Amino acid sequence: MIISTTAVVALGADAITSTQTQLDAERTEKSLTELNSKTALVALGQTDVQQVTLPASSSSTYHVDENAGWMNVSYQNTTSGDRTTVVNESMGEVAYRGNGETRLAYQGGGVWRSNGDGTSVMVSPPEFHYRDATLTLPLVTVSGSGALRGGASISHNTSRQYWPNKSAGAVNPLDSGQVEVRVQSEYYRAWGQYFETRTDGSVDYNHSSNRVTLELLVPATNPPVQGGIVAGTPGTSMTIKNNAEADSYNSSVGPYSGFPDNSNSRIISAGDVDVENNAIIEGDLESGGDVQISNNGEIRGNLSYGGTASGGGYPSGVSGWSAQNASVTAPDSVERLIDTRRSSVSSSNDNADSSVDIDNSSNTLENCASTCELTAGDYYLSEITLNSGEDARIDTSGGDVNIVVNGTITIQNNQQITVVGGNRVNVYVEGDYYQRNGALVTVEDDVAPNFWVYTNPDADVEFDNNAEFTGVIYGPNGPNNDGADITLDQNAHVYGGVVGDVTFVSNNYGIHYDEALQRTETTTIPQAIPSVTYVHISTNDVNITSD
Fold first, then answer.
1. Residue 250: per-residue pLDDT
2. What span, in angstroms and rounded, lies between the C-alpha atoms of 326 and 323?
3. Does the CA dihedral 374-437-505-405 come out positive or negative?
4. What is the CA radius of gyration of the chain?
5. According to the UniProt entry, which residue ranges have a biased composition of type Low complexity (predicted)?
């Protein structure tokens, strides 16, 4: 009887203690949630002072620690590479610790719970709002120290607007860059979970430092390809000369050969353009700079320019209208898309598929003395180099083919890549692209939208000496930066389009624009980048003392 009674009493005491701990935690959550609400009223200027009751047991306390945790917000201009710290502030906290290991705290405008095992959860959200590419962050910081017994008084200290701030050059909308939010806190895991659920951002955890980082980027703009050449850097110069010709076809109707109307070509350049020495554009030219037409150069369509139009062939060399009304903006870089695809495909790919010709030890094509073949899937290659006697075939009958090339692509000496099937090939190239000496890239029925080569903006791209390419070379770098350096020379032909920095097109070169690109998505795999266009950031400090 004594043993039984003792056991009952012990178990009952444990149950009572557990229940009491749970009730204390629930009561504290409600109290800190009320503190959160009243602090927001003071911090955001709706009232000067507020009081709140903070009930606690004899063995539990509330404490103010103005140095607990911090938040850093920075902005990097991707054009210049400069990073600016916008906010770097201690958040502070009002924390409750009871009998158990559970710890609750008000911090950064939210209420958080730490469970004593390294995990944490959000009880109520912080003052951090992200919607429709707009970040609103009126960060609430806490000043004060010591224990709070029975209640707290909340008063306003200071407020400061960081963004927008015209005098500091902090203006909306963001032009080209990224915003990074870093939080160091005992509750960093819960902060990170909040970022993951409330934003489309890239969230990275540093567990050894109790830190989480959220990255938000300005959204990329990559509209459909609108011309056989899209060269988007102001201040550059492109020369089309020596019997070079730009015309068009529409692969959704039929292949280039025998197409009934080749007069819908379009050349687009943000810089100057010279058309000379019997060069012919069977369509329109749009130049954001100066245009000069000379030595039997012709534009058999409309001319739109931003600077001046001149030369011995102007205006007689223009068949359509001519006007100073050009407005050229280059697409954004796909550098981050290439990096993202490289990271994902390098770790998970179809290289080991026995039906494809890839040496898994070196990640290179093999057995190309006959013909290497790739079918639907994702592939990771160190490089692509095709020389004499080597060809490659890409069969998309079973679905899209995605190829990441970590180095350079070189196709030369009459070698050929043949694309068949009705789906799409996407090639993401970290290095350069060279096609020379009669080398061919062909797509069944000349369907240029079925073959895309994405390059970094610092890449070199060369088509030379009777090379022929069907598809799209895509290497832009935004409205004010140099894109891929593309050279088009010596009897080579492109069926589709090129996007980047084209300096000259010469010597019987042919640009044959596929009008089907006007209705084709530039990227089918969404760029794995979050977006932010408008930013509103302030700090609002409150003083919390014992009531």
1. 97
2. 8
3. positive
4. 32
5. 343-362
Do residues 457 and 476 touch, judged by C-beta distance below 8 A?
yes
Cβ neighbourhood burial of 104 (10 Å; 0-12, 13-18, 19+): buried
- What is the three-class DSSP state of 135? strand
pLDDT < 70: residue spans in the chain: 1-25, 56-60, 78-81, 98-100, 176, 525-531
**Spatial distance between the Cα atoms of 294 and 313, rounded to a whole number of angstroms:** 5
CA 198/CA 192 separation, integer angstroms: 10
Q: What is the pLDDT of residue 521?
A: 94
**Local structure of residue 223 (DSSP, 8 states):** P
CA distance 409 to 425: 15
Is the distance from CB of 501 to CB of 476 less than 8 angstroms? Answer: no
How far apart, in whole angstroms, are the C-alpha atoms of residue 429 and residue 409?
8
pLDDT at 16 (0 to 100): 43
Measured on CA atoms in the order 35, 37, 41, 44, is the torsion positive or negative?
Answer: positive
Euclidean distance between CA atoms 312 and 494, whole angstroms: 29
Mind listing the pLDDT tens digit for each residue in 4-57? 555 444 444 444 444 444 556 677 788 888 989 999 999 988 888 999 988 766
How many CB atoms are located within 10 Å of the residue 454 CB? 25
DSSP annotation of 78: T
3-state secondary structure 9-26: HHHHHHHHHHHHHHHHHH
Residue 123 phi/psi, 5° resolution?
A: -95, -45
d(CA 87, CA 424): 45
Bridge partner list, 147: 63
In this structure, the number of other CB atoms found within 10 A of the CB of residue 198 comes to: 15
Q: How far is CA 239 from CA 282, 294, 300, in A?
A: 16, 11, 17
Residue indicated by tokens 């201690």: 90
Q: What is the pTM of this model?
A: 0.73
In terms of C-beta density within 10 A (0-12 exposed, 13-18 middle, 19 or more buried), how is residue 282 classed? buried
Name 199's bridge partners: none
User: In sequence order, which ranges of 185-248 are alpha helices (DSSP H)?
Assistant: 188-198
Assign 58 to helix, strand or coil.
Answer: coil
pLDDT at 305: 97
Rounded to whole angstroms, the Cα distance separating 150 from 435 reads 78
506 Cβ partners below 8 Å, 6+ apart? 239, 240, 241, 242, 244, 279, 488, 489, 490
Instruction: State the amino acid at position 484 in one-letter form.
Output: A
What is the residue type of 119? T
Residue 414: left (phi > 0), alpha (psi -120 to 50), or beta? left
pLDDT digits (tens, 9 = 90+) for 86-98: 999 999 999 987 6
Pairing of strands 322-323, 303-305: parallel
Q: Beta partners for 460?
A: 485
* CB neighbour class for 334 (10 Å; exposed up to 12, middle 13-18, buried from 19): buried
Residue-level pLDDT at 481: 80
Please, which residues have CB within 8 angstroms of residue 7's CB and are 6 or more apart in sequence?
A: none
